[in-house]
Specification:
202 residues; 4-stranded antiparallel β-sheet; 26% strand; globular
Length: 202
Amino acid sequence: MVIDEGILESYGAKAISLKKNEVLFLEGSASLNYYQVAEGIIKMNNFSTDGQEFIQGIFKNGESFGEPPLFGGFPYPANADAVVDSVIWKLSKENFIRLLKENFELHLKFCAILSKRLQFKAMMAKEISSYTPEHRVLTLIDYFKKKEDTKDSKTYEVPFTRQQIADMTGLRVETVIRTIKALAAKKELQIIKRKVFRDYAA
C-alpha cells in the first residue's frame, strides 16, 4: 500500500465506487486528484488513431496511479477505467501535496515508485522496438512477477488476459495467442484450463 488508508482519510480522502468499464478520467482532462486503489483493478490506456488500445499500466489493491501530472502540472496523458468493479480513494491535489510536505518519508516513497514506472516504460519501449514477440511476452511476465514479489512461489499465474498482454506489448491478440502456445511448447510457459503459468523452479 502506498499511503495508509487512515492517513488518506485524515487528509480528506473519500472512497468512490466504479462499475466495471466505468471511466474515472479521460486523456487530456485536468489532473485534480490523487487516486489509490482500495479494491479492484484500474487500467490506464491510450488509443491509436485506428482504435488500437495500448495499456500504459494496470493497478491493483493498494497501488496508486496518475500521479505524474499532479507533480508536473499537465493534463492526464492517458485514460483510466475500471477493469472490474472497484473502490478508489480520491484525494484532492491540494491535500495530496500538503500530505507529502508533512510526511517526507512518503515523498521519498513516491520518488522510488515513479522511478520504477519510468524504468518499466523504458523497458517496454525497448522491447517493442527491438525484440521478438516471445521475448516481449516473457519480459512482461517476469517484470510483473518481480513487481508482485511472489518470492515464495515457484509458479506464477499470469494475471492478465491475452488481450491485455497484447495491449501492453504492442502486439496483436492473435500474435499473443500464437506466442503463448509456442512458449508452452518450449516449456517456458504452461497453459492449464486456459490460464497461463510460468515456472521459476530451479
